[in-house]
Amino acid sequence: xxxxxxxxxxxxxxxxxxxxxxxxxxxxxxxxxxxxxxxxxxxxxxxxxxxxxxxxxxxxxxxxxxxxxxxxxxxxxxxxxxxxxxxxxxxxxxxxxxxxxxxxxxxxxxxxxxxxxxxxxxxxxxxxxxxxxxxxxxxxxxxxxxxxxxxxxxxxxxxxxxxxxxxxxxxxxxxxxxxxxxxxxxxxxxxxxxxxxxxxxxxxxxxxxxxxxxxxxxxxxxxxxxxxxxxxxxxxxxxxxxxxxxxxxxx
Length: 251
Fold this sequence. Notes:
Layout: E1 2-6, H1 11-22, E2 26-30, H2 34-44, E3 48-50, H3 58-68, E4 75-78, H4 93-121, E5 125-129, H5 142-165, E6 170-174, H6 183-187, H7 198-210, E7 215-216, H8 220-229, H9 234-246
Parallel strand pairs: 1-2, 1-4, 2-3, 4-5, 5-6, 6-7
């Protein structure tokens, strides 16, 4: 099998590449930082192709598809993304728009293009990296939570369309809580709960992907939190989320 992974230069994307490589997959890796991709290619050895790209530019997304559409891609992993933290009236609009371009627009473009191809041949896997943030509003992290909600709801809707069509194509959303990656430093936050190992989450995600699980939630803590939210009024959930986000602020 051959997998295309976005955001492969660090964090979850890098560890998903390691897990899939260990399972015998050939890899096509993309991210902005070419030197990081080269480093990962040397680590993983043969069967790795790198295509540096800045997916905040829609033209780069279409270009990536054109460069790989005839490569026999079996798995698309949409991992590229970042967050912008802070009160909505204070956060930088240009940075937020770039976040939306990467977290939402790039994922939408690549999902659409490969989804069509996979449906035509009736095979393929799409794993969209969302977040536990997708399950609720996130005051002080509003744009990021909203972006991940988009990823989750799009994925769930497409999964149902595929089920109705009797398609053998898989699509799923990975929704982890805090993971030990560069994400917190990029967003300028510190998590108030213990972070999971990025590699452990990647391994769990791949296992659940091949088991065809639509919504993948690693870690018992996040599973319990998601269950508990079902019994709380939405106003209480939003207020709790605000207090949790405030604890992420650096002193």
